[in-house]
Design goal:
This protein has helices at 5-58, 61-71, 73-100, 102-109, 115-121, 124-140, 144-169, 174-182, 184-211, 222-239, 241-259, 264-282, 287-305, 309-346, 349-357, 361-377, 382-403, 409-435, 442-470, 476-502. The relative contact order is 0.10. The N and C termini lie close together (11 Å). The protein has 509 residues and is mainly alpha-helical.
């Protein structure tokens, strides 16, 4: 059977995201061992601050630009030029303020050691918004190859900077060492930005100008500009919620852990274990759904504009089906091997417990991301925002109440994080389900879910017995790696086979 263009794009995008995610995940292992849990906690607090401001500056513009460009490339080029100036000014102001007032910001967040990391991450705020905007434009014209290369290059430069500067400066205290780690955000973004500017100047614009597709229009199209701004603001309102929640977690959780009886160092260490290491592992399986969302957006937006309702609903059904099947399989892997992963990667059993608690994250986050993209592509920007707002409010309340309970702080922090994903996912799923009531059968979901659970249990038991029978002579960590690789491969193959069989090989044609 001929592989569709959609799956070629999905495979290419998935490969790039896989490389970026794997590099990012595995760099945390030496980083964790260099900085210790407290250093990782400071690193996560700095990045929560950086992520919140970055989203606030660039927010919905990259996504809105990709939608506009997919529909009208001439308008996309005009809006790219207009928005670039706006984001460069906003980024420069925000970066300068963060650098100059870093000490006050650090005290507000609860630890003076954060001052240096905030100063070192400030330059990234000047250029990353522009980088995201260019990627949004390239996504709209389906230049996935250039986007993928830039992301891989950015990640390689970023993690190289992180490791080198952390190793050089670790003897001067956590503040400077973490500062060296977060400075990688600037060096990585700078390398990717230079590459994409070269692509735009010497490839994209030349090619499309020769074809007459990117001739600069006269911007007498005020209604289109207003629509673009409204779309950007709506997406910003939705996109800002998760970084805001993470930033508030970085402020609330360490403080409430101290209220529960932990010292400041212990509180930051626990925050680092939960938000730094455990979440890195549990969010890794969502690379498949992230790639799916990335390539799905332009396809649904195009079909929706042309009134191809049947094609839109078919893509939605298959996307959600693939997402929850993959999420269940990944969740089984995390639950069965959470403790093993915690000891193998970080030599910390408490991280392993957190990984097991977070086992539902691939399922919840995957469905939330895919359904959010589906609703955005159909010009329904308010619905995902409502779900995220409700989830964020619940998460903040639970975080404040549960984390401060003596002896329950660790579990309370995890419950508060998971609650956001649960509420937002259920809200989005309900809206998408309402659009096409015949697309999702509760009986089918329960049946397939129980089937995957049974397969996972059987595979886990069989592999465990085979390891005990045949490869006990190998070092224990080698046994664990072999068993986990075989288990995840088996689950992935089962997911693919069931997906293909259920849909009779009619995959996004």
């Amino acid at each position: 059977m001929r592989v569709s263009v959609f799956f070629k794009q999905l495979a290419f995008r998935t490969s790039a995201i896989l490389i970026v995610k794997v590099i990012g995940a595995f760099i945390r292992i030496p980083l964790f061992r260099l900085l210790s849990a407290e250093g990782v906690g400071l690193y996560q607090m700095t990045y929560s601050y950086y992520g919140f401001l970055l989203t606030f500056i660039s927010g919905g513009f990259p996504t809105a630009l990709s939608f506009v460009t997919a529909k009208n490339q001439k308008q996309g080029k005009a809006f790219l030029k207009m928005t670039s100036v706006l984001l460069m000014i906003a980024g420069a102001i925000t970066g300068a303020v963060s650098y100059l007032f870093s000490q006050d910001i650090a005290i507000f967040m609860g630890d003076s050691q954060l001052a240096l990391p905030i100063q070192y991450v400030a330059p990234a705020l000047c250029i990353v918004p522009l980088l995201s905007l260019i990627r949004g434009f390239l996504q709209g014209i389906e230049y996935y190859g250039s986007i993928a290369v830039s992301e891989v290059a950015e990640q390689i430069v970023r993690v190289s900077t992180m490791l080198v500067l952390t190793m050089l400066w670790m003897g001067y205290g956590h503040g400077l060492a973490v500062g060296g780690a977060v400075f990688g955000a600037f060096t990585g973004a700078a390398s990717a930005l230079f590459f994409l500017l070269w692509v735009l100047r010497f490839h994209v614009f030349r090619q499309y100008q020769a074809e007459g597709n990117l001739q600069a229009p006269v911007l007498s199209m005020l209604p289109d500009a207003l629509s673009y701004m409204k779309m950007s603001i709506a997406i910003l309102a939705t996109r800002l919620i998760v970084p805001l929640s993470e930033f508030l977690d970085a402020v609330i959780i360490p403080h409430r852990l101290q209220d529960a009886g932990f010292s400041a160092s212990q509180a930051i260490s626990i925050f680092g274990e939960i938000s730094g290491m455990a979440t890195t592992v549990v969010y890794l399986p969502t690379l498949i759904t992230a790639a799916l969302s990335h390539t799905l957006a332009a396809k649904i937006a195009e079909d929706w504009k042309r009134g191809k309702q049947e094609s839109v609903f078919r893509r939605i059904r298959l996307a959600v089906q693939l997402t929850w099947m993959w999420g269940i399989g990944s969740g089984l892997f995390l639950f069965f091997y959470g403790k093993t992963l915690g000891m193998l990667l970080f030599d910390d059993p408490s991280v392993g417990e957190a990984i097991r608690y977070f086992a539902l994250i691939p399922l919840l986050t995957g469905i939330r991301e895919v359904t959010t993209t589906i609703l955005w592509a159909q010009d329904r920007k308010k619905e995902p925002m409502i779900g995220l707002v409700a989830g964020t409010v619940c998460s903040i309340v639970l975080s404040y109440v549960l984390v401060g309970i003596p002896g329950f702080g660790y579990e309370g922090a995890i419950i508060s994080i998971v609650s956001l994903e649960v509420i937002a996912m259920l809200w989005n799923f309900r809206i998408v389900k309402k659009q096409n009531k015949t697309a999702f059968s509760v009986f089918f979901i329960v049946k397939e879910g129980l089937g995957m659970l049974l397969i996972g249990l059987c595979l886990f038991q069989v592999l465990h017995r085979l390891v005990e029978m045949y490869i006990l002579f190998l070092p224990q960590y080698v046994q664990a790696v072999i068993e986990m690789l075989v288990f995840y491969t088996g689950i992935a193959l089962y997911t693919i086979v069931r997906f293909v069989k259920v849909n009779k090989m009619k995959l996004f044609l």
